[in-house]
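INFO  loader      accepted 1 record
INFO  loader      residues=190
INFO  predictor   begin
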Amino acid sequence: MIVLASASPRRRELLGLLVNSFTVRPADCDERVPQGLSAAETVEYLSRIKGDAVRAACGEDDWVISADTVVAVGDEILGKPRNEEDCRRMIRLLSGREHLVYTGVTLTHGARQVTFHVCTGVTFYPVPDEELEAYIRTPEPYDKAGGYAIQGGAAIWIEKINGDYYNVVGFPVARVHRELMKMGFDPTEG
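INFO  predictor   done
INFO  writer      dumping tokens
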């Protein structure tokens, strides 16, 4: 059985591009990150602890897939905004500049575990205040790293992308597929 350790509807949809059948079991764990980790280390750490939390309730033959995404601007790591003011601050920080989107993924099968991350550069056009204010009044940005959905209303602000689009959505489909195959995953299973 394939188990997705995530409550994200976007990850559920994107995993569906790889396999026909899987179970969703959101991880229930302490997501506090040790101080001093880089954005890449942060998403790898979080994906691993989420996977470990779910793996405990799975069978030895199950495949557990867990992931976490953050946005980084310079040394600042942006997770999900806490409220409108935090979302406004994040989008203003991203406006007119490039930022990096990191997704960490952990794949676990029995005693084997592989953790990796994918990084994609995204450049925003300058975001007009009236568009920003309209966007933060919608529910869309509040469950997204960096406070925006590239596949949603924020699409109008994207000047360019350098890397994997699906990574920005929150699940690097092609890399996950390749890593699963390296681990011996049989696509006929799912």
